[in-house]
Structure formats: structure tokens, C-alpha cells
Amino acid sequence: MLAGGSACSGASGLEIVHLDMDCFFAAVEVLDDPRLADRPVVVGGTGARGVVASASYLARVAGVRSAMPTATARRLCPDAAFLPGRFDRYRSVSAALRSILTDVTPLVEPVALDEAYLDVSGAHRRSGPSCEIAAGLRLRVRRELGLDCAVGVGRTKLVAKLASKAAKPVVGPAGVEPGPGVVVVPAADELAFVSRHPVRALPGVGPKTAERLGRYGISAVGDLAAVSDESLERLLGASLGRQVHRLARGDDTRPVVAVRAARSIGHEETFDRDIRDLSALERHVRAAAERVASRCTDGAVVARTVTVKVRLADFSTVTRSRTLSSPTASAAVVAGVATALLRELAPRAGVRLVGVQVSGLADGSRPRVEQLELFAEPPCRSAAPPGAHGPGTSTRVAVAAVADAIRRRYGPRAIAAAADAVAPAPTRPPLPGAVPVTCPPEACGPAACVVGPPALRENGAVGPRGQRSGQAAPLEDVTLYSPGPGGV
Predict the structure, then answer these.
(1) Phi, psi angle pair for 310, to nearest 5°
(2) pLDDT class of 485 with cuts at 50, 70, 90
(3) Which of 414, 417, 419, 400 is nearest to 329 (CA)?
(4) Residue 384 class from Cβ within 10 Å (0-12 exposed, 13-18 middle, 19+ buried)?
(5) Is the pLDDT of residue 129 over 50?
(6) Is residue 452 in a domain?
(7) What confidence tens digit (pLDDT) does each residue in 442-462 have?
(8) How are the residues of the chain apportioned to helix, strand and coil, as percentages rounded to the nearest 5?
(9) What is the pLDDT of residues 222-232, one digit of tens each?
(10) Cα–Cα distance for residue pair 130/126, rounded to 1 Å
(11) Residue 467 predicted with pLDDT over 50
(12) 146, 334, 427, 451: which could form a disulfide with 289 (CB 3.0–4.6 Å)?
């Protein structure tokens, strides 16, 4: 391990910094509750089918890893504190972290709540060489947030990310060994540094691709670099083959993009037990659609494509998508399309997960020119008498905005579609004058198309189906990578 000054002497021309927080969610929980400091901490789904989102190093010593089923983690580490997660708190800490990073350079590309790339090429006059910037960032994060992080410095994004991983603590049979905290990889040594990593370290190489490469004796990045471009294109396809071959040879031209627009917004739910009832699945899909639409509204975006994802009991996954004629952020529209897609899937076996995603995002704050339908159907197709149809588009949008505001203030379950509301069992016939209306959700969204006598409707006294409503390492240290027999 070399001190900052020695490391910086061989680190010229390195402009990319990658910062990655250590066990972020678990570390925030320990920060807020110091009584957890000496206990293994696991954050994630706490139900029978929950998944680990973050595990402290003490939990990792017992074999717990991210993305592991929580049930497996409980068997491996029964003494751990299993916490459901507080994502509002994590987002708040992430915002404070980003403030620290943007104080150094505006060229910050967040990758997740707990990691980001920085281009520090314009920060040297004020903040010094890249390695000093990296060490200073780690000190500030520790001092201002009370959390630890690992920082990598390199000529490219790939090298910087692998360097930050090498800077982290190492979990072994004997416990946790502190990492160097900051690792700097000079340009002259980057090929030797990268070549020793497994092929999974390259972006775009997943488990199946790595397995395919392994059948041909290609397990390390160095093996990949030795294969011809043509052979990799035949093996992996033209696009992926060229991409991984360039990265393996150190040709990574990806820039740090300060503003990365979201490509999609989604929400998924894993059930504790398989669900076979279609109406129950529809309720979960509508709830997911409402959350997705709320996030679209918060982000001032509209979406053109709605996708429903269903994972069956045998872990097989099926999806269906539909592209709208006009982009939308309406919860009613997204929920209506999502439930229609769910019916198309018609899952007969038990379902363990459902999800709703919207994509084809566009700026929702700008006025849009929409193509009107020549033979558009009314907002609510029904056999009701004239005037009994549901509200028009502008009213539905206003209602959706009010519902979003209620959920933000009182929680996601504070208000629900009437179709999903829990009403007491009827003890008497429907109110006199109640008019049942047939209204497919794809036409009206999740709103219940049931109306009562005008006077009661105006007073809000009529609930679903015309009944009266019921319940509704030292921080200063910097490591300069040098190739040697010990590996990475």
C-alpha cells in the first residue's frame, strides 16, 4: 500500500473516478441504530419469498449475498437483524452523497443510489490530481455522512469500476480484511489489471454468456482479448462480440454522462404465496400501475408503452406489452391497459410475481399534439341512461392528481380504486334508484362504474355496487495498482 503522494506520481492522465458505497442499505441502518454495529444486518424482503437487497460484511462472512432469497439468508445467518428497508431514507442519504460529488465536478453520472462515475478532467486546478480527489472524496463521505465507500481511479469507466471493487474490504473464512479504500490503476498497467478479472466483470456478459464462453475455454478477460474479433462475433453475435472484444483490449470510450434520462419506470411485487385468482392478481396489477403512474407524474414524464410481467410458480416469466396511440401518465389508463394485458396472459398456474412497467418515456411538461381517434369510444361504455357515463378525460386526470397527492401524504394504501375497496357484506337490497353499469377496465381504468341515486352520489354516500361504503481501511491511504504474481 502506497500513500497518496507516491501513488499520484504514476497516475497522470487518469480522469475517471468511480465511487461505490460499502453495503449501502445495511450501513445506513447501522448508522441510524448503533446497536446494530456488532450484529450482522440484512436488508430486503422479510417475507417467505423476500430477496436480500443489502448485507453487512458481518452477514457476508456467514455467506449471505445480495439477491439471495431471504429464507436462505436466515438459514445461513439466523442471528442477523433482518430489516425490511427504508428506501425514502436511502434516497435521502443518496441525495446528500450526490451533493458531495457535484461539489467536485458537475460531470457526475449516478449508476444507482450508492454508486456513481465522475469525470474530474476539469477539477484539477481547484482539487488537485485525480488520486487526491479520490482520497478527498472518501474522507468527506466518512466525515459528512458517517459512511464508508471505495473509490477507483482509471483512464476508463471499466478500469475505474474494477479499481473501486479492488478497494473494498475482502470477506474471507477468517473474517473481514480491510480494503485499501482507494485504488489507482495507471494507464500502463490497465491491461494487466483488467485481464486477470473473470469475463463476468465486463458489461454485457451475464451468466449465460459467461457459460457459453467457458465452453470454449474463455474464462478470464485476458482469454477474451486473445480471441479474434470475427470468432467472438460468430460466438456472441456481431454487436455483443465487438463490444466485449473492445473492452477486453482496453478500448472503452464510454463517456461520463451527467444527466441520464430514465428509459423505463416499473414496479414489481413478489407474493408470499402463489396466487391463482385472476381478480386478486388484477388488484395487485392495478396497485402497481398506480405506483408507476405516480412516479411518472413526479418525474414529469409520460409513457407510450405499457408492459406486464408475470412470473409463475415454476419461475418461468412471461410478458405482454402494448403501445398506446398517445403517451400518458394517467393511472387509469396505465391500470386499464395493464389489467387487459394480464387477461391476455390468462395465467392458469400459480403466480409468484407480477410487475408493471412503462417505457418510451417523453417529457410530460411540454404541450403535446395528440392524434384524436376518429371512432373513439366514450370514456365509459355502458347501457346506462344518458348522462350516467363516467367523467371525461380532464376530470379523470384531475382525480388521478388528487389521488396521487393523497398517497404521497398518507401512504400508498390511503386511497384505492372502488373496484379494490373492501366493503362490508350487503345486509339489504341495493339502495332505491341504484343503476349498475357495465364498464370494462380497459375503457374506464380502475374506477368502479356503479352509480346510485343522484342525491347520494353527490354526497359521496354510495360505495361499490351501490352499497353504502364501509372501510374503506485508513481513509488517507491510496493504493497504486502494480501487476504482480499475486493477482488482483
Answers:
(1) -130, 125
(2) low
(3) 400
(4) middle
(5) yes
(6) no
(7) 444 444 333 344 443 334 444
(8) 40, 20, 40
(9) 999 999 989 99
(10) 11
(11) no
(12) 334
Q: How confident is residue 417, by pLDDT bands cut at 50, 70 and 90?
A: low
Question: What is the DSSP-derived secondary structure letter of residue 418?
Answer: G
Catalytic annotation present for 115: yes
Q: Which of 248, 282, 317 is the last residue of a domain?
A: 248
Query: Among 262, 253, 258, 299, which residue's Cα sits nearest to residue 101?
Result: 258
In this predicted structure, the answer to whether residue 99 has a pLDDT above a threshold of 60 is yes
430: left (phi over 0), alpha (psi -120 to 50) or beta: beta
Residue whose C-alpha is closest to residue 205's, from 162, 253, 169, 248: 248
Pick from 426, 438, 436, 434: nearest CA to 454: 434
| Residue 215, CA distances (Å) to 218, 416, 451 in order | 7, 52, 65
* 382 pLDDT higher than 80: no
What cell was used for 345? 396472459
50 within a domain of the structure (yes/no): no
H helical segments located in 103-206 = 124-127, 130-145, 157-166, 190-195
Q: Residue 222 falls within a domain, yes or no?
A: yes
Higher pLDDT, 426 or 406: 406
CA distances from 125 to 100, 104, 120, 121, 122 (A): 18, 11, 10, 9, 7
Q: What percent of the chain has pLDDT over 90?
A: 59
Other Cβ atoms closer than 10 A to 375: 4
233 and 283 in a common domain: no
Question: What average pLDDT score do residues 31-50 get?
Answer: 92
Which whole-number Å values give the CA distances from 53 to 41, 84, 311, 358, 458, in the listed order?
Answer: 11, 9, 19, 23, 47
The single residue listed with the C-alpha cell 499475486 is 486
d(CA 296, CA 339): 19
Least confident of 232-246, 359-373, 462-476: 462-476
Q: Considering the candidates 115, 190, 282, 290, report the single residue annotated as catalytic.
A: 115
Do residue 218 and residue 288 come from a single domain?
A: no
How many other β-carbons are positioned within 10 Å of the β-carbon of residue 14? 27
pLDDT at 368 over 90: no
Residues listed for the chain:
488
| Residues 239, 308 within the same domain | no
- The boundaries of the domain holding residue 272 are 264-363
Rounded to 10 deg, the angle between the 207-214 and 229-236 helix axes is 120
Q: Which helix (H) or strand (E) holds 324?
A: strand 317-328
Q: Provide the grid cell at 47.
A: 417475507
Residue 341 zone, left/alpha/beta (φ > 0; ψ -120 to 50; rest) = alpha
Could you say which of 312, 346, 363 is where a domain stops? 363
Domain count, the chain: 2
